[in-house]
Amino acid sequence: REVLGEEVSRLELLTALLEEFERLYKALRHGEPIHKEWQKRLETLGRRIRVKMGDSQEEGYAESVDSEGHLFLRRPDESLIELVAGEVTLRT
């Protein structure tokens, strides 16, 4: 409602979400790489980020994600690391 400025039917929203999940599930079962669609929508890719993982952190540029959802971060020294989990913050 806040984004659209009008009431949204919960039933219509739920129906749309379930239809999209079904479409993606069918694509996955046929071996289609659905992570490419997700990757296109990620605002972090190509941007400078900080990733906190417990007591440690890494900074660099978000380069890509793989089919498992792992983030590839390009460090300032140009090395590339794979991150499985963490809290991502955009840097300026």
Concise description?
The chain has 92 residues and is of the alpha+beta class.
Characterize the structure shown.
With 92 residues, the protein is of the alpha+beta class. Helices cover 29% and strands 30% of the residues. A five-stranded antiparallel β-sheet has the order 4-3-2-1-5, with no helix packed on it. The protein is extended, with a radius of gyration of 17 Å.
- The whole-angstrom Rg is 17 Å
Neighbour order of strands in the largest sheet:
4-3-2-1-5
Instruction: Quote the beta fraction.
Output: 25-35%
Computed structural class: alpha+beta
Helix and strand run: HHEEEEE
Q: Can you count the beta strands? A: 5
Q: Mean pLDDT, rounded to whole units?
A: 88
Sequence stretches where pLDDT stays below 50 over 5 or more residues: none
Which outline best applies?
extended
Largest sheet composition: 5 strands, antiparallel
Based on the model shown, name its key terms.
92 residues; five-stranded antiparallel sheet; 2 helices; 29% helix
Blueprint (SSEs and pairs):
Blueprint: H1 10-29, H2 35-41, E1 48-53, E2 56-65, E3 71-74, E4 80-83, E5 87-90
Antiparallel strand pairs: 1-2, 1-5, 2-3, 3-4
